[in-house]
Amino acid sequence: MAVKVIMPKQGLQMTEGTITGWLVEEGGSCTEGTPLFEMETDKLTITMDAPATGTLLKIIHGVDAVVPITHTIAIIGEPGEDIAALLAEAEAQNPAAASTASAAPAAPAAAPAAPAAQAAPAKEQEGKKFATPRAKMRAEEKSVNVMDVPASGPDNLVIERDVLAYEPAPAVKATPLAKKIAEIENVDLSEVKGTGSHGKIVKNDILSAVAARIAAAQTVKAKEDGAPAGRTKRVVPMTKMRKIIAERMVASLQTEAQLQHVVRCDMTNAAALREVYKKKNKKISYNDIVLYATSRALMDFPMMNASITDEGIEMHDYVNLGMAVAIDTGLVVPNIKDADMMRIDEIGVVAKELADKAKNNTLGLAEMSGGTFTVSNLGMFGLDQFTAIINPPESGILAVGAITKTPVVVNDQIVIRPMMSVTLSYDHRIVDGAPAAEFLRRVKEYIEEPTLML
Question: Fewest CB atoms less than 10 Å from the CB: which of 32, 59, 204, 229?
């Protein structure tokens, strides 16, 4: 019986995905659980597996198609099977995209296969090659092009052991991240001069090459654009991630009643807590303390850990704590799952792992979805205080500033203390001003007196 292949729903905010490649051709065979197609969300490119075993009878949406979640994008079944009803359903979802598909007949019955000695697999005959996600990951680690690796898997598929056994010929030296960016930006590594150790090409070399290319292609002469003599201007196209961030931030401000509260926290005891852990050969950061205090305060004030939906206010008895991480191409917010059940040192370990994955572009969808509250820390950039925009559908976000030595009054005496500003942005549709202020006060209490939450 034929089954539909649909664009999966990954997280509350995702409404559509872009198909970036089909790993099985129409009419080809596929096996449940093996790679079928690649899709791109606003933040990630991932490989999706086939939901069933059979023949890919019809591809309804091809490469570069932007498809809403849950829409049918292909049909898997047996050769010769009648799929008219499924095609009609797909056409009803998106008439423009499916009109040509509905007119196409079901895939014909497969002809008897030729003996193995007489013919190679169809994909291999056509010279096409595919790779599993793990093979791609290993290829990046070894700084090799996965398409150069001989395939031992079915239908010319490169698998992990192929990459592990592959020894490439001497090539241009470049870091895995530099190669990834070069691939995305279509930069020829052989034309880039490396500034890293022993001439290795690093990320900044690729970014400089991209900037130079954009400048050369889009610079307008002063006499043509009215710029001052000897000066020019250029346009840098927005990436898909940048466009999505812009759309979501504008939508957040337009749809949510966002207000802010600010407190200053005395970090003296937080610094002492770090020293206690240091003596135990455990390292925790000030950001770990903020994350831990926030996760505990959220359990004390459930409305700050809620989301607004069409049906009402959705309450969560768990804390998936988002942490905003800046990367070269924009901003991502991975989530520390079940943060409320972790020790402070455990939160620190997970936070570091997620930050490293974000910077290396290896975050998975599960790590990017399902957040209930977010913390954004820009203190390392020297900002005393700032306001963050809520990450929908969450009800709040904490903006954490730098720790600075500040004169304050303690017991009627002026003393110097390490102070840190924390700004809460909250959705007034869910939380009123007084409970929001109480929540922020609780965060302050936990940060200033860490023993209260340990």
Answer: 229
- CATH pick for 256-453 out of 3.40.50.800, 3.30.559.10, 1.10.10.10, 3.30.420.10: 3.30.559.10
Identity of residue 389? I
Task: Give the Cα separation of 102 and 83 in Å (integer).
Answer: 9
Cβ neighbour number for residue 180 with a 10 Å cutoff: 16
Q: Across the 454 residues of the chain, what is the mean pLDDT of every consecutive 10-residue run?
A: 71 68 89 85 74 90 84 89 85 60 43 39 52 86 85 83 79 81 85 86 89 70 57 70 78 85 96 94 94 97 92 93 88 94 95 92 86 95 93 94 95 95 95 96 96 86
First to last CA, the chain: 56
Identity of the amino acid at 164: L
Nearest 5°: the CA angle 290, 294, 300 is 150
Q: How big is the CA angle at 324 (ends 290 and 388), to the nearest 5 degrees?
A: 85
Q: Which fold has domain 3-105?
A: OB fold (Dihydrolipoamide Acetyltransferase, E2P) (2.40.50)
Q: Answer for the pair 291, 375: CB distance below 8 angstroms, yes or no.
A: yes
Give the residue numbers annotated as catalytic, written as ranges.
428
Amino acid (1-letter code) at residue 243: K
